[in-house]
Prior knowledge:
ten-stranded mixed beta sheet; about 25% strand
Amino acid sequence: MDSGMIDATRRAATLTALDSGTFDLLIVGGGITGTGAALDAASRGLRVALIEAGDLGGGTSSRSSRLLHGGVRYLEQLEFGLVREALRERALLGGRLAPHLVRRLPFIYPLRHRIWERAYVGAGLSLYDGMGQLPAGGADRVFRLHRHLTRHGLARAMPALRAEMAVGALEYDDGQVDDARLTLAAARTAAREGAVIATRVRAVGYTARPGSAEVTVRDELTGAESTVRARQVLAASGVWTDEVQRLVGREVLRVRASKGVHLVVPKAALRVNRALITRTDRSVLFVIPVGETVLVGTTDTPYTGAPNEVAADGDDIAFLLHQVNPWLRRPLERADVVGVYAGLRPLVDRAGTADTAKLSREHVVAKIDDQCLAIAGGKLTTYRVMARDAVDAVVERLGGGYPRSCTDRLPLVGADGFQATWNRRGALAREHGLPTGILEGLLQRHGAMVTELLTEADPADLRPVAGAGGLLRAEVGYAVRHEGALAVEDVLLRRSHAGLETAGGAVEAAEEVATLMAGPLRHDHAWAEREAARYRTLNGSNRAALVGAAG
């Protein structure tokens, strides 16, 4: 079966395909919702195109807490349907659709009050467990039932915490997912099913015609403009929804942006192998182990600036350190923070609520005009349901005649054969002369496609890129030929997370990555130098908050 290539070396052919004929559906936005919708529509037999002004997952879908969860806190808000739906999707993704990208993660919920809080939270987790045991996708046994911990049990489970801060705890399981690679896997699977996927292509104009729409698009790399014709347009643009609505000339959805900031610290500074969840006065505090790093987040504050300019500031860092340090035996210092990133949650505001933390995470499909729909809201865990609902609305407008969604039975690229490949990882590592740990990292990024990557690789490139953690040189070329990478940041921030999880933002890797990309992209050495410099500038602006916080 076609592995689902998004080949950046054939970008000219992709842009030509955008200009050929009339698509049934044009999707604007290449985050998890847009790529999920492209997969849903293409797998029903629609002729689909997707355009993304930046990189796949370049916005919210690569800047989350990387959790695949039902939302324990939504139970308190009585959003039982949302929790049940999310837990079903968690099971599907972990068991059938993307087991290579999903891992079980134990969570500790510390208790501050005796008796009543244990009973109250325990009852909620019993309900959470019950909903999570509903059959769906074969992952039911992956996530264990919750258990009660005494104060001494809490100290054994998370010795990095100050046990005196709690009278005990409850431990429960949820899921962890690589958000950027989940988005990429959905996009590659959509491409395998026939969707045309084009990045660095921005919608700049819109004209409604009887029965169709014409969208003017601009190639962000060359400035050239062309027209894409489609019977229906779906804006899956998250916090950029207003931009699409302005092109159409009608504002129907009010999408509010909530800023979420995460700190990245090395495990040497915060040794935890379980996650912590507790309340703050403004949001929920997460401490989440991810590989050799730990994420500390998150904020939940209204954001009114330009979406592409969102960034953490010194106040965000100070706030998170202030919230987490009372829980830690060894408080974190600003020097411990090796990275910080900010993302925006697109929340639908139906009632003019001032506090974004109180807005529902449910999604909405709305009619903008006769040829354009928009979907907004929702959460990473339920992206497949959001996509299904959006495409259902598209199909209804097209007059029906298409099959129902089948994405609950359609494994994403890398899922088929993953378990068997994982089982023989030792043999694969020996065959290619790789440490087992490196091979396991490859499997957790690429799933069963690791065999394709290794088969194509020059043996000389099966060594790490200097300064980029476990990223192999061979993965850079693979990212260009199969995963649509066009810039250094695509590789270091999303195809891998080296730029977020490596001290210094992996700037020392930028030149090598740019040189490795230049060959397949047919660029010269001058391009590689400019691209490496551009990444260093980008990294510098991303890390400015750390400098400000330290000052």
